[in-house]
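Example (one chain per record):
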Amino acid sequence: MKSNNLALYGGPKLIKKKFKKYISIDKKDIDAAIKVLKKGTLSDFLGEKSPKFYGGYHVQKFERYLEKYFKVKHAITTNSWTSGLIAAVGAIGTEPGDEIIVTTWTMCASATAILHWNAIPIFADIEKKTFNIDPESIEKNITKKTIAILAVDIFGHPANMKVINKIAKKHNLKVITDNAQSIGTYYNKRYSGTHGDIGGFSLNCHKHINTGEGGILITNNNEYAQRLRHIRNHAEAVVSSNINNFTPNMIGHNFRLGEIESAIGIEQIKKLKNKVNRRQIIASKLTKALSKLPGIKTPLIEKNCTHAFYIYALLIDEKITKVNKSKIYNALVAEGLDNILDKYFNLHLLPMYQKKFAYGTKGFPWTAEFTRKNISYKKGICPNAENLNKDKLILLELCVHEYSEKEVDLVIKCFQKVWSNLKFLRRGKII
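Predicted structure:
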């Protein structure tokens, strides 16, 4: 008996040409940028008491458009979502030694934004179904030092905000939501990002809409909005000594978005609905086909949610396939399937947390007198995240390619080809 020419064993690749790169920029975006260039004012912020403290024409126009779009009181733009997260953690009044609970499955900035203020990230485990932060794990990690929960909508699916907010209310905690991967999705008929004290989105090149780099903060809290605007723009030069509620965390930064990026953003946000809808169509087609293959679990979408499919996450059940995940992953890659991953971040296992090196080599802020002692990031504290990464998870980065109908079909054929040859993968060689 011979294999069906698996590329892993020397057969021809199914995908011979790289898929088209995802680019959301079109003529309207280009024209908007050119208009700004012709005017010559690329940034119009001033780090002093002035109407321009809040930015130039396009920055303010973009922010007003966002407020209307997401139905919130305040939208504040930043030069990146990392900057936005730092500003959000500062705006809630974080003190050195405070603890903020965050998921271990997220981009590193969700946790380093906490360290920026000499506070301590405490990692919670994930749910097995949605991969979002597990409310039960949040509860287990609350201490007297906990001040907030930083919930992340991983892969594009909203976190369980109803339960998270219930926990926060019970323990008098603030809630920040990192919606970088879920812009344009809904949770309980409201946009993701509107269910906490502060939410926000990324505008970098891999997101559904982008301005190159950039971030969006949204909130309905007037005080937080003012703090965010001050942290964004050199607060210490602006805040008067008699404004007591602005005194915490008013070492300001230059987190300002430029006029070109804002002009592009105005055009980009108009396309968001269509961009998300297209990703949902692609995911639906993948799910319809791949769910027929034994041992594959396709992404769950909770009834009260929509999914943006920044990443299409699959779980492989080795008990059914009789082939370990790594071998399946290698077979798919060999067929030419690009931008596929076999793991995600487990932040608590990164060297920064294992060695507790953030500022210098002395273990600060974990060794500081204001920090709770014996905080552990040891392997095993997030078993769901660790085990799924090791044995089950395969990720398709839908954020990287355009994915035409033909390309989606090729992705499906890759999986079908590998699955039709599982018996050869079990043996590890051609028979």
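Caption: The longest strand covers residues 146-152.
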